[in-house]
Here is the input.
Amino acid sequence: MKEQLSIIPKPAAIKYGEGFFKSGGIPSVIKKECDPKQIALDKDGEISLKSHEGYRLIIEKDRITAEAASKTGMHNVMETFRQLTLSEFKDGVLTLPCAEITDYPRFSWRGLMLDCSRYFYSVPFIKNLLDVLSLHHINRFHWHLTDDQGWRFKVNEYPLLTEIGSLRKNYRIPDLPPSGGFYSDDEIREVIDYAALRHIEVIPEVDLPGHASAILASYPELGCTGGPYEVEERFGIFEDVLCAGNGKIFDLLEKVLNTVTRLFPSKWVHIGGDEVLYNRWEACPKCQSRLKELGLKKSSELQSWITFKLANMLAERGKIAIGWDEILEDTERFKLPKETVVMSWRGDEGGIKASRLGHYVIMSPCTCGCYLDYRQFDNREEPGALYAKAATVCDSYSMDPVSASMNKEDAKFVIGGQGNLWSEWIYAGKIAQYMIFPRLCAIAESVWSAKEIKDFNDFEKRLTVHRQRLDNLGINQYRGPLR
Here is the structure.
């Protein structure tokens, strides 16, 4: 029986030949004409007919040829080859079965979100994570930078956002000094540049107008009550949000978006929009005055007004807004700008609604294995959120960005999906790795591989080999039941 290549995510096609490629050491990469036991690179325009990210890897007895139509495709083929070297290079010899691998992605958006507000992950940790994301053809890093528990980048005109808003009481050991921090401009550029070399785009998130405790602790005049406020050490959803009746919030938001635009080259900016409570707006005279001024009937419509303004502010700066699926609600008066992208997290309903309204959609439903802060197995000894049902590796593998309820027209608006790691329960990088892997391997296959070639039993077999690669990279990973 011929030895199989255990590649994750599963390639579009593998055609096996006779014999094996064997080489002492790992082959070097050179031009098309090359000596035996080296990798030849070649440009193949036909591959771009499927996707500019596609590639072909040809393994013969005496040489390996990598073909792609673009730099991104060539990067992907070399990452697939890196997988093979991590598991098949043994005792100084690389042994691979002769084969022709043809591959291209199903979706253009294949992402991971890392919450750096609840836990402040270091730049070296993030760079290490980007290395492993690249190995799995993940091409979007969604960087959650603000929330109730911390503000993580400098805005020169509003220095208290980091002087005050980046630090909070240590929720695990209250007697310790405040914990947190923020990323300098140079550190942000370092992460962006590091990701770009791996063909990963970094998308920042600034969560607005809710999850605003860090903002309000820094500038209490921007809240409905005037405070006092503090950077939250608790987790949950809090009543205090930006005051919709105070025009000064837009002075701050202008400067925040100017900073984000200056630092992040991505065409997308995530503006949050989730879990906004309206209690303060309903009791606030300024917010109620704003409500009447705008001709609105209920306080919840103030959020659609703020979202409308934010999306247009970003459009003026050449950016496209992304928001959680709550931004679809109460938009009768202030309709969501057509170019706004909706990230569906409470299930697939938001994505279905958004696609039918003509919005591009990214699927990351907490109901289908995309929330990586959930336990991987239903056991209280497992780390992760105890309030939620466990999300198994099989659940992550079962995620399909195109909902079964979507028709062909709806499906055209789905650009992909991602996993999300919220860090309320994750207070160390090694725990984060444990929560991410191997579920991210399953998600990577769900957003890269064609639906008709997916098979969980086959994935389990390939994962056995793939685990060796993660071990060789020093990645902590969950090893319990997969379903």
Notes: The chain has two domains: 13-103, 109-472.
